[in-house]
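User: tokens in, sequence out, please.
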């Protein structure tokens, strides 16, 4: 009926009789009742014959002993019947529990054999994220390996006077490192590069990433960050899904100045328990990931120390929201950097 309330589903594990019905009269109770009636009938017949034969009257002690002789066997019979009934119930409950445990074990085995038992929409979304990750990695590798064309180099590098050009060539001839001749990356490009391109069509993001890869120290941090982000993605951990607590810029500055432990505990703002557990398990079981994580933490420490010297509080706040900074907060909390 329409007005009938729907009853909530109940789960029966065999511990309680959830249907509220009594189990009924058992064979043990029937036997106990029959034995009790037979005993009472036998005792009644005995007293009838004893009275007719002129037995002496009962005193108080004999009366008590007579009552015990009459009712104690009946009590023992019903105790035995109750014990038999309890034993039967316990056997049934044990069988139900064993069946439930077997069903749970079978379900667990099937879930382990079929880890992809998720909804098609979720599975499609995971495949799209993995494809986008692979696409981004391919684009990063492409931009890393591509060198500017000679015409582009000439267009980017302004012409020098004859004297300065000769001095420049002299410096190159004497073995001056090429890193000293590269224009340092600006703060905006540095922050954008550490966040990586949003999509394959993010031209500004790839342009900033290309500039960052020309700077040796920044390129090492970008590569280390890319390595750990790729490994984390294999466990389904993506920085876009994390929403860490924001730390004040002064706490980041204290970290850059060498403070460790509880002084910088505010940087450990990642609260996602599943991501923390998966990352900690990967750190224990995968030595390659562990080495990559420690290498990334060292690179971030060194690079951020130089960045903080000339960065404003706004720049530090923007950097703390990048994917690289979130990976640092996640790995730093797992490795105990903030405790």
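Assistant: Sequence out:
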């Amino acid at each position: 009926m329409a007005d009938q309330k729907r009853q909530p589903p109940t789960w029966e594990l065999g511990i309680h009789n959830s249907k509220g019905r009594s189990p009924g009269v058992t064979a043990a109770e029937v036997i106990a009742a029959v034995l009790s009636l037979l005993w009472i009938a036998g005792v009644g017949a005995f007293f009838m014959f004893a009275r007719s034969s002129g037995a002496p009257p009962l005193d108080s002690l004999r009366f008590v002993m007579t009552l015990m002789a009459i009712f104690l066997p009946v009590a023992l019979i019903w105790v035995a019947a109750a014990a038999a009934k309890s034993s039967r119930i316990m056997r049934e409950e044990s069988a139900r529990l064993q069946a439930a445990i077997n069903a749970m074990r079978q379900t667990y085995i099937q879930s382990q054999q079929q880890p992809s038992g998720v909804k098609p929409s979720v599975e499609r979304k995971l495949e799209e994220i993995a494809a986008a990750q692979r696409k981004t990695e391919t684009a990063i590798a492409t931009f890393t390996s591509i060198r500017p064309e000679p015409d582009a180099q000439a267009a980017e590098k302004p012409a020098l006077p004859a004297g300065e050009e000769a001095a420049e060539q002299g410096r190159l001839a004497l073995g001056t490192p090429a890193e000293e001749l590269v224009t340092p990356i600006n703060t905006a490009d540095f922050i954008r590069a550490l966040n990586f391109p949003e999509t394959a069509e993010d031209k500004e993001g790839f342009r900033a990433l290309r500039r960052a890869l020309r700077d040796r120290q920044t390129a090492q941090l970008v590569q280390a960050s890319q390595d750990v982000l790729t490994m984390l993605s294999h466990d389904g951990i993506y920085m876009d899904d994390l929403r860490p607590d924001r730390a004040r810029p002064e706490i980041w500055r204290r970290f850059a100045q060498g403070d460790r432990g509880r002084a910088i505990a505010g940087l450990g703002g990642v609260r996602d328990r599943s991501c923390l557990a998966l990352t900690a398990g990967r750190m224990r079981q995968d030595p390659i990931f562990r080495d990559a994580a420690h290498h990334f933490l060292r690179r971030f420490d060194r690079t951020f120390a130089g960045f903080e010297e000339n960065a404003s509080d706004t720049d530090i706040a923007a950097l703390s929201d990048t994917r690289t900074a979130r990976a640092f907060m996640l790995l730093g909390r797992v490795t105990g950097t903030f405790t």
